[in-house]
């Protein structure tokens, strides 16, 4: 019934018949299982009609939008919240807190990344709720997890103002699409967070430093300024080896705190005799076992 109404409204398979479409949308709205979707469809139908921006038509459309939202349609709730925050006409009875409540519901229940980003903006700007940059960063992070494309600008500013969660989310964003240019920022943020004692970032920072040390060791093999100077080459190799062992110690500390990825990293390192560790099957098996238990 609802699909038939949409066909009539859009002219799929024939001519557009708005009068019949409206009748079938109304019929679909009378059934509980299609009421919410039909109300949302009526909103779009009325807004898309010639003269849809007219005040009377818009008022009727908004009634259907509100009805669809109250019946639990997440798309309707998102649209309604966006219109409230954008101060659209005909929504004077709503306030920012209502928009915040709608966004919070759609973000939690539907795991909708767009709702999460709008909710983050509410926390960032104090719209409908208390301003909280850490909470805003958390929701941006969750949106990233759901596939949202996010610019780093706000996170960088919030991180510079001291938001720990902004730094954590910025790490997540930089890890998602790493570049040579972003590597130094990623390493710096992980180092700052590692200093707070979080094993997750102790491991991340140590792994990045190990990768940097390994690349440095490779460069020594062909750099003409160094390869011909055995004393200089030996000193740099020793420095890189010391960095590697310091980072292995950091990873062991993270593993001791129960970080499974750190345990697995150590298992792989012992298995292959990597990063300055002697090859040891028994140590590898022990770390594999401990990682499996986490």
UniProtKB/TrEMBL annotation:
<comment type="similarity">
    <text>Belongs to the sel-1 family.</text>
</comment>
<dbReference type="InterPro" id="IPR006597">
    <property type="entry name" value="Sel1-like"/>
</dbReference>
<dbReference type="InterPro" id="IPR050767">
    <property type="entry name" value="Sel1_AlgK"/>
</dbReference>
<dbReference type="Pfam" id="PF08238">
    <property type="entry name" value="Sel1"/>
</dbReference>
<dbReference type="InterPro" id="IPR011990">
    <property type="entry name" value="TPR-like_helical_dom_sf"/>
</dbReference>
<protein>
    <submittedName>
        <fullName>Uncharacterized protein</fullName>
    </submittedName>
</protein>
